Amino acid sequence: MIERYSLSPIKDIWGLKEQYQRWLEVEVAVVRAFEEKNEAPKGTVDKILEKANINVEKILDIEKVVDHDVIAFIKGVTENMGDEARYFHKGLTSSDVVDTAWALAMKRAGELILEKLEKYADSLKKLAIKHKYTVTVGRSHGIHAEPTSFGLKILSFLAETERNIERLKTSIKSISTGKISGAVGNYANISPEIETLALSYLGLTPAKVSTQVVPRDLHSEFFNTLALMGAGIERMATEIRHLQKTEVLEAQEPFKKGQRGSSAMPHKKNPIICERLTGMARMLRSYTVSGFENITLWHERDISHSSVERVFVPDACMTAYYMLEKSIYLIDNLIVYENRMKETFEKSYNLVYSQRVMLGLVEKGVSREVAYKTVQENALKAWDERRDFKTYIMNDDRITDKINKEEIEKFFSNDYYLKNIDKIYERFGL
Question: Where are the transmembrane segments (predicted)?
Fold first, then answer.
């Protein structure tokens, strides 16, 4: 991931020294299990921790010779050890260490992402409460439809976020899976009991069946969840991008003092955060392809997945984290123009109330077909002639003979459209 989008603390997980530290955690957990099962002398772990030396440059120098990163790690870390080195990597294969360490990294990254996702949900909740009764035009196909609550728009993003929180919790549990089962996963040189003990020290669970690697469908589930989360953020960002259009301007990204929108046009305030979030959601979706393709490996294992994971696993996690950080800032500082929302109704000449008039006729005994045609005729005239829809309704005898003008006035009230808002909010405990 480029530095521009790399934020601490999640970027700190993916450094080379941190990778070696996780490998050491796995190796030590296995030796600790040996000790507990009396397969290694007491105190072996202490000696290993005392003498283990993670010197990144030295390990890389060794790798240049041996051309194998795990062997280079073992040689570098154990160079100062005595007899205790016999128990370091005993019965293990490289994937036991690498895959279990991947699980640690993804679990820790997932927990940081989950924490941010829950904060994002809190931000959405606050904004939804603030604008519970803020009336705005609802749109379908990009066209004015009927009045709704701006808070209800935000609640739809919150509902999706809550689903993604549950998905993420489930996928974090799935990726918290390691394997210490040997070269082809048959425990020939290490016992299932050692695996269970060692992984328990790391907060992981054993794969029910592994080959030489942890099954990659578990990883794929996690990255699919991140992509779903990104799609939810993109949906929110796309809504704001539309609302920030000059001819709409019902909402707007925060614009900091000293910020500039264009190098050429001083007047510009562009929705750069929302556009960035939209682009990054595309990246998250693209990573799912790599996740799927890594599931199929030859026989018990090949390493076609390895080079791919080294790139997209850290990038996907950091992208998701960055998106959440920016989304929280965006929602917490969103500018909402309530007056512009009211003015928007005039731009479609109050046509958004057409269904109320039609249903009013139906309630008076007019067939739905006749009612629809009568209202549509007036609506199309209002649009073509750019005049208030209500004026046409008030002057159509086919309508006023059935409905008095006082009743018609009520059809153009927004209160009707918000009558069940409280019930929807109650579903969220609000």
Answer: none
The model carries a pTM of 0.94
Known catalytic residue at 290 = no
Q: How far apart are CA 273 and CA 244, in angstroms?
A: 12
Report the mean per-residue pLDDT for the chain: 95
The domain tally of the chain equals 2
The residue out of 300, 317, 341 marking a domain boundary is 341
Amino acid at 197: L
Q: Residue 191: CA atoms inside 13 Å, Cβ hemisphere, count?
A: 8
| Residues 133, 153: Cα–Cα separation, whole Å | 11
Would 429 be classed as within a structural domain? no
Instruction: With a cut of 80, say whether residue 1 has pLDDT above it.
Output: no
Q: Which helix (H) or strand (E) holds 149?
A: strand 143-149
DSSP state of 286: H
- Alpha helices for 89-149 (secondary structure H): 94-130
Give CA–CA dist 248/343, Å, rounded: 10
Q: Which of 78, 76, 82, 42 has the alpha carbon at shortest distance from 60?
A: 76
Tell me whether residue 141 is one of the annotated catalytic residues: yes
d(CA 255, CA 367): 52
Residue 180 lies in domain? 10-341
Catalytic residue chosen out of the listed positions 140, 141, 267, 307: 141
Distances (CA, A) of 9 to 15, 21, 226: 11, 16, 18
Is residue 155 a contact partner of residue 183, using CB atoms and an 8 Å limit?
no
Query: Exactly one of 8, 144, 210, 262 is catalytic; which is it?
Result: 262
| Tokens coding 104 | 């640690």
CB atoms inside a 10 Å sphere around CB 161: 23
In a shared domain, residues 209 and 145: yes
Task: Compute the half-sphere exposure of residue 359: CA atoms within 13 Å on the CB side of its CA.
Answer: 8
Give 60's DSSP letter.
Answer: H
